[in-house]
Design a protein that fits this description.
The protein has three helices and ten strands; from the N terminus they run αβββββαββββαβ. By secondary structure, the chain is α+β, with helices and mostly antiparallel strands. The model has no long low-confidence stretch (mean pLDDT about 90).
Length: about 200
């Protein structure tokens, strides 16, 4: 009887050891929420300013309400993704506001993120048919702003855009959303026109 009990006990222990062989009991990696992206569709915005462009239907263009706001300063809210594109328009007058000063400011604002950035890619925007010139800065890494750009006609008009997420910068968590919004900002730039 004791032999049968020992055999049964060995059999149970063997089953337990075999059943636990493929289990890994390490900590599970941190997960992120599944993000539902809306269908891509756009509508044209004409807001009484000297420029027009198309924005995604899931976004909303509002007037900037900051303390030193100027006419035609706008914010494009991506409320579903907790992000905002700040648009600042300036009229070039070559006395108080020069194109050189504005482009230097855009460069400074983009490269202010150098300490946190892993790379800053610059793309030239050149569309002589629509009289639109500029630079787009894609800032990689855990930075406060990942995309900035400016557009100008080189004579009279200048607009600068900067995308910010309203949360602590963590590129791993915002990467899919950043890619999705980046495509929409490229569409905005491609449909941009001076009046």
């Amino acid at each position: 009887m004791i032999n049968k009990t020992i055999y049964v006990l060995y059999f149970i222990i063997a089953l337990i050891l075999i059943s636990c062989q493929n289990e890994s009991y390490g900590p599970k990696p941190r997960g992120y929420h599944r993000i539902e992206f809306p269908q891509k569709s756009y509508h044209r915005i004409d807001n009484g300013c000297p420029f027009v462009f198309e924005i995604p239907d899931y976004s909303k263009l509002i007037n900037d309400s900051s303390e030193n706001t100027q006419p035609c300063w706008k914010n494009l809210d991506f409320s579903k993704f907790n992000a905002r594109l700040h648009l600042s328009y300036f009229q070039i007058d070559n006395k108080n506001i020069t194109l050189h000063q504005l482009t230097q400011d855009a460069w400074s604002f983009a490269f202010k993120h150098t300490s946190k950035a892993t790379a800053i890619d610059q793309s030239v925007i050149h569309n002589p048919v629509k009289n639109i010139y500029g630079i787009e800065y894609k800032i990689r890494g855990n930075t406060a702003s990942n995309i900035q750009f400016y557009l100008t006609d080189s004579v009279e008009h200048y607009i600068r855009g900067a995308l910010y997420f309203n949360e602590k910068p963590n590129l791993d968590s915002i990467q899919p959303v950043l890619k999705y919004i980046s495509d929409d900002l490229d569409h905005l730039i491609n449909t941009f026109a001076w009046k």
